[in-house]
Amino acid sequence: MSTKKKTKCSRFSERDVLRLAEAAYSENPSFGVDPERTALLVIDMQDEFVKPHWTPFWVPDATRIARRVKRLVDFCRNKNIPVIFTVFARTHFFLDRPKTGAFMPNRYHGKIPDDPSYFRDGRVWHELSPLADEVVIRKPSYGAFYDTPLESILKNLERDTVVICGTLTNFCCGTTARQAFERGFKVIVGSDITATDDQELHEAELKTLRKGFAMILTSSQIVMKLGNRPVHVRRLASSSNHGVIAA
Predict the structure, then answer these.
(1) 3-class SS at 87?
(2) Using CA atoms in the order 153, 81, 175, 201, what is the torsion angle rounded to 10 degrees?
(3) Does residue 160 have a pLDDT over 90?
(4) In order of start, what are the domains of the chain with their CATH numbers?
(5) Spatial distance between the Cα atoms of 128 and 131, rounded to a whole number of angstroms
(6) What is the pTM of this model?
(7) Which of 27, 51, 53, 168 is the most buried (most CB within 10 A)?
């Protein structure tokens, strides 16, 4: 009897499980996308991350993707797909954020001067300026759902799908994608309209999201999806096709 149990529990070899995992990192989830039930989330495309040379938190690839993000924003506006922006800004005297954030190495404590103008106003990069009737959420941490009204806003808009673009891929975008997934939303992340400060980590984050949280598409594929044109995506090419920073 013990032999039978051992045999039954040993059906999958190490090679088998690693092969399954490898395939799952490369294959997109399969779900339908209805443009009338979709919203675009533009995550933290603000001056601190996008404006060249202004802060030590500048993400050069965020500057490079800005025009591509703008094209998707314009497309969604023309399709009456809600565009919602997020920014990281001073709210409630910084008392509304995780207390241990101050200990994290990405604050660069002792390595840069403390400039109170950083992350104070939360200005969206000028090329992507929100319209008067578009929501801008000032969030206190990485994820756009953490301690914000985003979930209520999406429900009131009767949206069940979110498309995520912006920066940083492996921080605010990835956290937002996970939070959206956990709240029952279908999630699409743009591979060439998200950016971070390390290309290898950008690719690794997209693979992780693809395996367990989100559909990963290029901006062109997203437009095809939202335009109700068929697109078949299984294995995706590298997303490292960012353009150059405009002068």
Answers:
(1) strand
(2) -170
(3) yes
(4) 35-226 (3.40.50.850)
(5) 9
(6) 0.87
(7) 168
Give the model's confidence band at 5: pLDDT under 50 very low, under 70 low, under 90 confident, else very high.
Answer: low
Nearest to 37 by CA among 182, 162, 144: 162
Rounded to an integer, what distance in angstroms lies between the CA atom of residue 242 and that of residue 73?
Answer: 17
Name the residue among 235, 217, 237 with its Cα closest to residue 227.
217
Nearest-CA neighbor of 225 among 176, 188, 192, 191?
188
Q: Report the C-alpha gap between 35 and 93 in whole angstroms.
A: 38
Helix%, strand%, coil% for the chain, nearest 5: 40, 15, 45
Q: Are 176 and 147 in contact (CB under 8 A)?
A: no
Per-residue pLDDT tens over the stretch 106-151: 888 788 888 888 888 999 999 999 999 999 999 999 999 999 999 9
In the chain the beta strands, taken as DSSP E runs, fall at: 38-43, 83-88, 136-139, 161-167, 186-195, 215-217
- Determine the Cα angle at 22 with ends 18 and 26, to 5°: 165
Contact 43/164 with Cβ under 8 angstroms? yes
